[in-house]
Amino acid sequence: MLGEDSFFYNINSSFADVELGRLVYINVEAQTKIPQFAGVGEAGIIQDTFNSILNAMKTANNSDLLVVRIQSWSRSPIITSISGILLGYPVIYTFGMNAAIPTAENMSNCLADCSLEVYKVFGSVSQKVQRNLGLTNMDHLIMSFSIPSHLLNDDDSPDYVALLESRFSCQNSDLGLFTRISVERSSTILPCVVV
């Protein structure tokens, strides 16, 4: 259990594909005024916390369900970052990491009025599955995330569309849930963004 949110995982599922060093960590603290890549220290705190959760899951006496309660965190904003890793997002937002006591000011972010690239991953189900489940639409949103546009450098940035299509196609081939995986990219500017 993370804060007020709960996550249920089959312990037999593998987290081996979570490469913490390959995730993109972005500091979106309101005080920074503009999103920037997180420092090594911030990323390290998040990675260490995730590793402690992962170790607790691995040593859970082979039970099928483990509830991890994190009560020792003095930095509640880390819950957002850990949730992002657990949910499989390739971009992890950080904020309030340097605050001794979380307040409304250091818990806010600087994403409002910032140009964002939004990625949406869709899975298409077969007509048979659509009929059996009573679905009205073949394309279903699997995941959506954003990254500030100014942090994308066309030469150095990962091709998130290809990366996500490959990742979800591999996962889908094992599960056989979808007949096709597609990724859409769009740009947006929002007056308010909740992380």
Order of secondary-structure elements: EEHHEEHEHE
Structural class based on helices, strands and sheet pairing: alpha+beta
Largest sheet: 3 strands, mixed
Number of distinct beta strands: 6
Q: Kindly estimate the percentage of residues that lie in beta strands according to DSSP.
A: 15-25%
Shape: globular
Unreliable runs: 71-75
The average pLDDT is 75
Helix content: 25-40%
**Integer-rounded radius of gyration:** 18 Å
Helical stretch tally:
4
Distance between the termini: 19 Å
What strand order characterises the main sheet? 2-1-3
Describe this structure in words.
This protein is of the alpha+beta class and about 200 residues long. It has four helices and six strands; from the N terminus they run ββααββαβαβ. The protein has helices spanning about 40-60, 80-85, 125-135, 160-175, and strands spanning about 25, 35, 90-95, 115-125, 140-150, 180-190. The strands form two sheets. The protein has a three-stranded mixed beta sheet with strand order 2-1-3. Strands 5-4-6 form a three-stranded antiparallel beta sheet. A hairpin with an 8-residue loop joins β1 and β2 (about 35). α1 packs across α2 (about 80-85). The longest helix has 19 residues, at about 40-60. The protein is globular, with a radius of gyration of 18 Å. It starts with about 25 loop residues before the first strand and ends in a 6-residue tail after the last strand.
